[in-house]
UniProtKB/TrEMBL annotation:
SUPFAM superfamilies: tRNA-guanine transglycosylase (SSF51713). Its cofactor is Zn(2+). Non-catalytic subunit of the queuine tRNA-ribosyltransferase (TGT) that catalyzes the base-exchange of a guanine (G) residue with queuine (Q) at position 34 (anticodon wobble position) in tRNAs with GU(N) anticodons (tRNA-Asp, -Asn, -His and -Tyr), resulting in the hypermodified nucleoside queuosine (7-(((4,5-cis-dihydroxy-2-cyclopenten-1-yl)amino)methyl)-7-deazaguanosine). Residues 17-387 form the tRNA-guanine(15) transglycosylase-like domain. It comes from Aureobasidium pullulans EXF-150. Gene3D superfamilies: Queuine tRNA-ribosyltransferase-like. GO terms for biological process: tRNA modification. This is Queuine tRNA-ribosyltransferase accessory subunit 2.
Length: 462
C-alpha cells in the first residue's frame, strides 16, 4: 500500500475499467471501493441528525462544499474547537471516524453567473451569488481542516461544449491554481510542521489529451497530490499512466443507478449520489439489487416505490421485503404513507435511512461483482431488468431553499410551498366572525392560549 495516499488497489484494471480498492486513512473507518460519499448540505446530511447517521446508517464519509460555509463574517472561522480537533468536523458534528471531503462547490452546484478570473471563481452561498478568491479558498481549506481537499478547478458548469479558446484558458488557470496550492502547502508544512489535508487534483471534464498542458503539470506534482477528482468520465479514457494509481473521486453527478454503474465501469473509485436525497424528497423508497435477483422478469422493474401512493395506506409490509434498515424493521408502508400525507418530517428521515441502506448493499454487490469478474454481464442484466429512470410521484417534497436548485432568474415561484399557512378566511364566512368577536387574530403561531379560549377556539362541540 502506498503510504502517500493510503489507497491500495485490490483488483486492478487496465486503464478505463472497473477496479476495486481500499481507502484507509488513519483514525477513519476503511472504505472499500467502489463506494459512495454522502452529500452534505450546509454541513448536514439532509434529514439525518448526526446521531441517526451513526446509529442507523453505514455512511462512512461525506462531501461538503466551501460555498456552504462562506457567508458574512464566515462564522465557522470564529469557532475554535479544543485540542486541535478539525474545525469543520467539530462545527458540523461529523463523527470522528467518518471521512470528510471538502471541495469549493456543491455537487451539483447551482451554475453561477459571471465567469471565473485568475484570482477568483463565482460561487453560490446560502445568501446568494458571490466570488471566492482562490487565495481565500486555499487558506480556508487548511483552517477548516477536512481529511481531503479537492483543489480548485475552473470547471465549466452548465456548459455542454467548451470552445477551444476557453479550453486554453481553463487548463492554464487550473494548472496555476494547483501549482500555487502545492507550493503553499510545502511552505506551510515546513513552517508549522502540522499535518495538512490530503489534496485531490481536479481533472477538467475533457479528455486528458485536450488538457495535456495541465496533466503534464500534474505528473510533475504527482508526489504532492493524493488523488484525482473526476468531473467527466471522458477524462478516464486516456488518463496518463503516471496518474493511474491515484484514487478517483467522481463528482460526475450521476442522476440514476445506471449512470453510477457507467461511472464505475470507467474506473471511478468513490462517487457522490446527488439523486439519493432528491429521491428521498420525492417520497420514493429505493428497491434495487445489484446483481439483479431475477435476470428475466416479465416487465422492467421500477427503481423504487412511490410511497405517496394510497395503495400503501393499509399495507403493513416493509418498504422492501427483508431490508435490515431501521425503517423497514420498525415501521411499515402504511405508516410511511400516513407520515408523507401529513407532511411529517419523520417520513423523510425514515426514507433517507432506507435509501442509504439500499445503496450500501448496491455498492457491496458492485464490489463483489468486480472481484468475481462478472461486472460487465451484471451491468448488462441490471440495465435490461430495471427501468432507466425513477418513478414519478404525485406528492410534494419538503421545502426547497434557493441553494438547492438551479435558479431561473429573479422573482421565481417558490418550489414546494409550505403545506400549512394561517387560514385567512373568506368575506362573510365563519372565520371572519371569529376575528370580529374578540378582535384577536385568527389562530396563528403567535396567538396566546388565553386569547384563543376567549374567542372560543377549540371549544368542545355540543
Ligand atoms: Zn429498509
Amino acid at each position: 500500500m502506498s503510504e502517500e495516499n493510503m489507497f491500495s488497489i485490490t483488483r486492478a484494471s487496465t486503464g478505463n475499467a472497473a477496479r476495486t480498492g481500499l481507502l484507509n486513512l488513519p483514525n477513519r473507518q476503511p472504505i472499500k471501493t467502489p463506494h459512495y460519499l454522502a452529500l452534505a448540505s450546509r454541513g448536514a446530511i439532509p434529514h439525518l441528525t448526526q446521531d441517526n447517521v451513526v446509529k442507523h446508517t453505514d455512511i462512512r464519509g461525506a462531501y461538503m462544499a466551501v460555498e456552504d460555509f462562506v457567508e458574512k463574517g464566515t462564522p465557522i472561522l470564529k469557532y475554535n474547537p479544543p485540542n486541535g480537533t478539525s474545525r469543520l468536523r467539530a462545527y458540523t458534528a461529523t463523527p470522528d471516524n467518518h471521512l470528510l471531503v471538502l471541495g469549493a462547490r456543491r455537487s451539483p452546484p447551482v451554475p453561477s453567473p459571471g465567469a471565473s478570473t485568475d484570482a477568483q471563481m463565482a460561487i453560490m452561498t446560502a445568501f446568494g451569488f458571490t466570488k471566492l478568491q482562490a487565495t481565500t479558498f486555499r487558506s480556508l481549506t487548511s483552517s477548516l481542516d477536512p481529511d481531503i481537499v479537492v483543489g480548485l478547478g475552473d470547471i465549466p458548469y452548465g456548459y455542454y461544449k467548451v470552445s477551444y479558446k476557453k479550453i486554453d484558458k481553463i487548463t492554464d488557470r487550473t494548472a496555476r491554481w494547483m501549482q500555487a496550492h502545492v507550493q503553499e502547502r510545502a511552505v506551510a508544512a515546513k513552517e508549522q510542521a502540522s499535518k495538512q489535508p490530503m489534496l485531490y487534483a481536479p481533472l477538467l471534464p475533457l479528455s486528458c489529451d485536450a488538457q495535456r498542458y495541465y496533466t503534464d503539470h500534474l505528473e510533475d506534482m504527482v508526489n504532492d497530490i493524493h488523488g484525482l477528482a473526476i468531473y467527466s468520465t471522458v477524462s478516464m479514457a486516456d488518463l496518463p499512466a503516471e496518474l493511474q494509481h491515484l484514487p478517483r473521486l467522481g463528482l460526475t453527478e450521476p442522476n440514476n443507478p445506471r449512470a453510477v454503474l457507467q461511472d464505475i465501469s470507467h474506473g471511478i473509485d468513490i462517487t457522490t449520489l446527488p439523486f439519493l436525497s432528491s429521491v428521498t424528497d420525492a417520497g420514493i423508497a429505493l428497491d434495487i439489487r445489484f446483481p439483479v435477483a431475477n435476470p428475466s422478469p416479465d416487465s422492467p422493474l421500477p427503481l423504487g416505490v412511490d410511497m405517496w401512493d394510497t395503495a400503501h395506506a393499509t399495507d403493513v409490509s416493509a418498504l422492501r421485503e427483508g431490508c435490515p434498515c431501521y425503517a423497514c424493521t420498525n415501521h411499515h408502508r402504511a405508516f410511511l404513507q400516513h407520515l408523507l400525507s401529513a407532511k411529517e418530517m419523520l417520513a423523510w428521515v425514515l426514507l433517507q435511512i432506507h435509501n442509504h441502506q439500499v445503496m450500501d448493499q448496491f455498492f457491496q454487490g458492485v464490489r463483489e461483482s468486480i472481484e468475481r469478474g462478472t461486472f460487465e454481464q451484471d451491468v448488462a442484466d441490471f440495465e435490461r431488468v430495471y427501468e432507466p429512470e425513477f418513478p414519478e410521484t404525485g406528492g410534494r417534497g419538503p421545502r426547497l431553499r434557493g441553494y438547492q436548485f438551479k435558479s431561473e432568474g429573479p422573482n421565481e415561484r417558490k418550489r414546494n410551498p409550505a403545506p400549512f399557512t394561517v387560514y385567512k378566511g373568506k368575506k362573510g364566512d365563519q372565520s371572519e366572525k371569529i376575528v370580529e368577536k374578540g378582535s384577536v387574530p385568527v389562530p396563528g403561531p403567535d396567538a396566546m392560549a388565553e386569547d384563543l379560549e376567549k374567542v372560543g377556539f377549540a371549544e368542545k362541540a355540543e
